[in-house]
Amino acid sequence: MQRPKYLTEDNSTLKNSMRLSRHNLKNGISHLL
Q1: Any idea what DSSP says for residue 33?
Q2: pTM for this prediction
Q3: Which residues of the chain have pLDDT under 50?
């Protein structure tokens, strides 16, 4: 069964934003310390 294109795109976008927020969180914490 093929997954709809928008689903996979949304999923990758979600993963990217999660990775970005985690990266920003690390930077913010190290900046505060």
Answers
A1: -
A2: 0.44
A3: none
